[in-house]
Design brief:
mainly beta, Jelly Rolls, Immunoglobulin-like, 4 domains, nine-stranded mixed β-sheet, 32 strands, about 5% helix, binds calcium ion
Length: about 500
């Protein structure tokens, strides 16, 4: 799964703990903000002893919050200027000389009044890697862990070493982008020498090359699709980034995408502009192309797979259809005939859903196979059987298919119902032949629950003019209009 997010041109700035610092009382031999200990430019390393350092030189609120006693505990100040230019990162190692547990407050944008300050507890040996800009000066305030004596911290001698790690921008080698059925697939290959690519930024264009502002994005903003955790950190990668809910792109007729790879430090690859592939949706038993074949793509509709060049039901749907319960409804003459089945809906992921109002049907489906004989009949399936109170079943839905394997074979009228907790679906003048009747819960059944139901499957005869009829339209129905008061079909 790849999470979709937003990336603004100003950059994704992490929340910073910005502190205001207390007063300085100056006058000490230990390094302070006014006179920090410079890190040796050759060894990039420095030894500092906090035992002689001042108390209350600065309030290290980034480490100790509002605890003024701890905040002012012994501290020594180092200044380090990152070499190089542009975005880079720096590893900072600490190594105890006298057994001190070191805590580092790292400040940017100034020592006593920084614009950013963070605190790291590194113990006797530890390291952190932080993003830095070439030429940037960090002030590192070395202090110790709080001791058992209130208001005091550990002190001693510690070596602090700075290891600059140059950052490299990623490179995008190839991109393939497809938008289909409300999803976006991007197959991207690329490289990043320091292995910190975290995602790709997309900008979308329509047929005239104008930028499509997606959802809440403005034309200047880009759409970030982050890579899975295991795809990050590769120096050379081939990834499939998938994002759901791209219906807006289909509606807006997206034609091209401008793609940029983004790494953890905000370095970007050169932009690559590609045509967006928009496959044609084809249906049951239509000819189709397998994914990856050259455009124009003919892709199967949902709940179908392309097998041997033809859209077919996946094997799990074939198995479910083969297992549908056959139900024989006696052929009526002038009165409705019906059979009932008492069943249960149980938890589990289903493999079939209907169309329209029955599309939201993620749960396990119960399936019946019925035959509508030659003649003129309505096919009725209902769970609103008399004598069953509210709450007996949470919220069911019913849909029909002419061909169980073909999702497109749901009758356009009278093929689905999801109105209220229980359902009554009437397919008027049903074409003779075999139907599959699906019953399932609107939202699937929760683990541990079971929803019992009674399903009635009925054939209602449709009577010609002059026939005796039921004014309530239950036992039969008149072809030519409502059953008259004289109980004769018009
Ligand atoms: Ca990189
Ligand atoms: Ca289902
Ligand atoms: Ca319902």
């Amino acid at each position: 799964m790849t999470r979709r997010g937003r990336f603004h041109l100003v950059g994704a700035v992490a929340a910073l703990l910005v502190v205001s610092c207390g007063g300085e009382d100056g006058s000490t031999a230990a390094p302070t903000c006014d006179a920090p200990l410079a890190v040796d430019q050759d060894s990039q390393s420095v030894k500092v002893d906090t035992r002689g350092a001042d108390e209350n030189a600065l309030q290290l609120r980034e480490c100790w919050g509002a605890d003024a006693a701890l905040s002012g505990a012994r501290q020594a100040v180092l200044a380090y200027t990152a070499p190089g230019v542009g975005q880079t990162r720096t590893r900072i190692d600490v190594e105890a000389v006298t057994g001190m547990d070191a805590v580092l407050a790292i400040r940017r944008g100034g020592c006593s009044a920084p614009t950013e300050a963070r605190c790291y507890d590194l113990g006797q040996t530890g390291s952190i890697t932080i993003p830095t800009m070439g030429g940037e000066t960090l002030h590192v305030l070395v202090t110790g862990r709080a001791t058992d004596t209130p208001g005091t911290v550990d002190s001693g001698e510690v070596r602090v070493t700075f290891l600059p790690e140059p950052a490299s921008a990623p490179r995008l080698d190839s991109a393939y982008v497809e938008v289909f059925q409300g999803r976006m697939f991007a197959e991207l290959t690329g490289q990043d020498a320091d292995g910190d690519v975290m995602g790709a930024l997309f900008r979308w264009m329509d047929a005239s090359g104008d930028v499509i502002a997606l959802d809440a994005l403005t034309a200047d903003e880009r759409d970030l699709v982050t890579f899975d955790a295991d795809e990050r950190g590769s120096t050379s990668f081939e990834t499939t980034a998938t994002a759901l809910d791209y219906t807006a792109l289909e509606t807006a007729d997206v034609r091209a995408a401008e793609i940029v790879l983004l790494d953890e430090l905000g370095n970007e690859s050169a932009p690559e502009r590609v045509e967006v592939v928009r496959p044609m949706e084809v249906h049951y038993q239509d000819s189709c192309d397998s994914p990856g074949e050259v455009p124009p793509f003919r892709r199967c509709a949902r709940q179908l797979v392309c097998r041997e060049g033809t859209c077919q039901a996946p094997t799990e749907i074939e198995a479910a259809c083969a297992a549908a319960t056959p139900v024989e409804i006696p052929t009526p003459t002038t009165e409705t005939t019906a059979v009932r089945d008492e069943g249960e809906l149980v938890p589990g992921a289903g493999v079939i859903h209907g169309l329209g109002a029955c599309e939201r049907a993620p749960g396990l489906e119960r399936m019946y196979r019925v035959v509508v004989p030659e003649g003129r009949f309505d096919l009725i399936a209902r769970t609103d059987v008399n004598g069953r109170g509210e709450g007996y079943m949470e919220d069911d839905l019913i849909y029909f298919r002419r061909d169980c394997l073909d999702p497109g074979s749901q009758p356009a009228e009278g093929g689905c119902i999801d109105s209220g907790p229980r359902s009554r679906l009437e397919l008027l003048d049903a074409e003779p032949g075999t139907y599959t009747v699906f019953v399932e819960d609107f939202d699937g059944v929760d683990a541990g629950d079971v929803y019992p139901y009674v399903l009635e499957l009925a054939l209602r005869p449709v009577l010609a003019s002059g026939a005796a009829c039921d004014p309530e339209g239950l036992r039969n129905r008149c072809a030519g209009g409502p059953c008259s008061a004289g109980e004769t079909c018009p």
